[in-house]
């Protein structure tokens, strides 16, 4: 579809456009989660999110049932699901109780946790350039969140960090499992098991939704699935380092939508923090372009 709408765009430009849309869709999910959380527990919201995802995956599950049954990495799948489940629940809890920009900024600490875990678990090397950009990004997060020792604020700041850590565990497990298993296996095991993990505790806090509320819960699942699909398409088209850094625009989206929808006005420090976070995303892209240019000049 993007090819027909914008035939002259390069693959990287198409990837960036899709990543911008994906980021906006995922932020819309966060807004709907906050609205739904006024009546439903996060366990129930996560359950409906996964229910929609499983329904969308059902045709692929039926076609590949034998392959899915014979996984060689069940313990790793479960470990990943624990990370994804905790990341979703704690992330939803955070976005339901903190200003949108603060909750979004806390989610960016995922990058720091992934860097640390990839070094420890996967033995990957994180260069000083990467460490510097992570440090810059973390400084921006601190400026946006402006942590306080108020009990309630501190609690939800910690849930935000916990959610980012859980998401980082899930991301590391994806790298680990994807060495031997197809993407479909990763998607199905997470969709089904996270849904099961959410369903059991949701029984103790269950609220029967009205038809309008049911549509809201299903919309959360539908948009989350759509956002993931657009994101995967973006990564398939563009360079990973460029597409990954597009996510930082989410801090700008969150400030604008937080102001328009929830009347949340960021102060000057928060705006400075947003600028710092954006810089931490732009620096790697500029550095990589300079390296490519130098390499081309060396060849010529």
TrEMBL record:
GO annotation, cellular component aspect: membrane
Membrane disposition: Multi-pass membrane protein
Chain segments annotated as transmembrane: 16-36, 42-65, 77-98, 104-123, 132-149, 155-174, 186-208, 214-235, 242-262, 268-286
Subcellular location: Membrane
Domain spans labelled EamA: 14-145, 158-280
Entries under InterPro entries matching the protein: EamA_dom (IPR000620), EmrE-like (IPR037185)
UniProt keyword annotations, A-Z: Membrane, Transmembrane, Transmembrane helix
Alphabetized PANTHER family for the sequence: ACYL-MALONYL CONDENSING ENZYME-RELATED (PTHR22911), SOLUTE CARRIER FAMILY 35 MEMBER G1 (PTHR22911:SF6)
Record-given protein name: Membrane protein
């Amino acid at each position: 579809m993007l090819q027909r709408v914008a035939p002259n765009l390069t693959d990287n430009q198409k990837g960036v456009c899709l990543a911008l849309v994906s980021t906006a869709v995922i932020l819309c999910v966060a807004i709907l989660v906050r609205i739904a959380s006024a009546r439903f527990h996060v366990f129930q919201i996560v359950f409906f999110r996964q229910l929609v995802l499983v329904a969308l995956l059902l045709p692929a599950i039926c076609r590949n049932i034998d392959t899915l049954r014979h996984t060689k990495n069940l313990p790793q799948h479960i470990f990943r699901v624990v990370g994804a489940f905790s990341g979703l629940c704690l992330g939803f809890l955070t976005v339901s109780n903190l200003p949108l920009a603060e909750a979004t900024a806390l989610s960016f600490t995922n990058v720091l946790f992934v860097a640390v875990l990839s070094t420890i678990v996967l033995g990957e090397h994180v260069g000083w350039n990467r460490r510097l950009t992570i440090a810059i990004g973390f400084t921006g997060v601190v400026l946006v969140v402006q942590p306080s020792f108020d009990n309630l604020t501190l609690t939800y700041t910690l849930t935000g960090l916990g959610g980012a850590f859980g998401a980082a565990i899930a991301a590391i497990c994806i790298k680990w499992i994807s060495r031997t298993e197809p993407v479909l296996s990763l998607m199905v095991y997470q969709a089904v098991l996270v849904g099961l993990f959410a369903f059991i505790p949701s029984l103790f806090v269950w609220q029967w939704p009205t038809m309008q509320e049911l549509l809201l819960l299903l919309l959360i699942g539908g948009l989350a699935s759509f956002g993931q699909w657009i994101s995967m398409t973006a990564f398939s088209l563009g360079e990973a380092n460029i597409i990954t850094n597009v996510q930082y625009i989410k801090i700008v989206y969150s400030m604008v939508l937080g102001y328009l929808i929830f009347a949340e006005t960021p102060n000057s420090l928060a705006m400075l923090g947003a600028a710092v976070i954006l810089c931490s995303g732009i620096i790697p892209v500029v550095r990589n372009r300079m390296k490519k240019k130098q390499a081309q000049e060396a060849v010529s």
